Amino acid sequence: MNRSVSRLAEKLAATVATAALTAAIFVLPARADTDAAAVVKTYADIAHAEYEDALTTAKALDAAVDALVATPSAGTLEAARAAWKSARIPYQQTEVFRFGNAIVDDWEGRVNAWPLDEGLIDYVDASYGTESDENSLYTANVIANASIEINGETVDATNITPDLISETLQEAGDIEANVASGYHAIEFLLWGQDLNGTGPGAGNRSYTDYDTANCTGGNCDRRAAYLVAASDLLVADLEEMVANWAEGGEARKGLLEGDPKAGLATILTGMGSLSYGELAGERMKLGLLLHDPEEEHDCFSDNTHVSHLQDAVGIRNVYKGSYTRIDGSKVEGPSLASLVAGKDAALDGELSGKLDATVAKMEAIQARAVAGEAYDQQIGEGNAEGNATVQAAIDALVDQTRSIERVVAVLGLDGVAFEGSDSLDAPAKVFQ
After folding, report:
1. pLDDT tens readout for residues 313-364
2. What is the 3-state secondary structure (H, E, C) of the chain?
């Protein structure tokens, strides 16, 4: 009796063990797919939350613009500028979603294109010049002219509306420098040109540029109309992108209904391209090589140190699968970091450390700016300490990109390519 029970127990144990092994063989690959899919879902959740926060702050900016136009004063102008700066924080963290997501990249030029030939929009200083071989609308000054000519055709600009800006003026003549909409057009209308070169000071537009009773700069009513229309348009554009990442939205569906490995490739394409070609290259190294304040991202407001820092934070957000919203709450879930750690814990530690190091280097740039040395001064010729601070951040971005490339290899992802930049890959071309 006891021997039979014992043999029966042995058989049951063997059967259970075999079943468990068989289940493991079939379950583990499915679990790996599920993990990748969960990481992609976290990525989409963070995108939705960040664009929602960008929209919330853009609506606050819109309200501040309305207040400025209704009651122009030094106070309402400063409030609108403060609202613009606040709006940049969540938006810049979304830039990591641009590369790899065609729906974002195709849209991005409407909200964050730069640099711009601001003479298309409003009056400019004589030092700006009067013409450009590349842009016939270099000084078109829509605010001063109710009729302009684009590609030989007369355009009625009597009423400055969001449609006029988005459908006619934005990239008019197929020229990218004709940036008529988005954050930087609004920035120019709030600050005006920064005429200080690499010296101290940002743009210094007066509130009287919007005061029809005491107008400076001429055409104060049309300037107000342009600012209101551009601000309304920014809100509408962000509403569109929030919808794209909401449940059932095109961007979310494209990722969540696709191959999870393709989703991981999208995440890493965004991280690597923003790190290397866009931020380290086009936005930082190019300006440093040329020592040119016109190459800084937020060139009218001297807010570039904030924008660059938030780009770096955005890259780290998607890797760690965590975003702190403007209300202090968190959106987080299964992360790329945890997926990498399961494959190669040392590599996860390496990349996590480098992402933190990059943020710290950006914070060093910000600290100098807060202390009184703006980003355009830091890249100025002859400023050895400022140049070194910016170069250290560039080096950190390049270094983290090398680790992102290793993550791509460890995860076995094919067809992942990062944006490049002549300023990093072939700097001699910059001076040709």
Report:
1. 999 999 999 999 999 999 999 999 999 999 999 999 999 999 999 999 999 9
2. CHHHHHHHHHHHHHHHHHHHHHHHHHHHHHHHHHHHHHHHHHHHHHHHHHHHHHHHHHHHHHHHHHHHHHCCCHHHHHHHHHHHHHHHHHHHHHHHHCCCCHHHHHHHHHHHCCCCCHHHCCCCCHHHCCCCCCCCCCCCCHHHCCEEEECCEEEECCCCCHHHHHHHHCCHHHCCCCCCCCHHHHHHHHHCCCCCCCCCCCCCCCHHHHCCCCCCCCCHHHHHHHHHHHHHHHHHHHHHHHHHHCCCCHHHHHHHCCCHHHHHHHHHHHHHHHHHHHHHHHHHHHHHHHCCHHHCCCCCCCCHHHHHHHHHHHHHHHHHCEEECCCCCEEECCCHHHHHHHHCHHHHHHHHHHHHHHHHHHHHHHHHHHCCCCHHHHCCCCCHHHHHHHHHHHHHHHHHHHHHHHHHHHCCCCCCCCCCCHHHHCHHHHHC
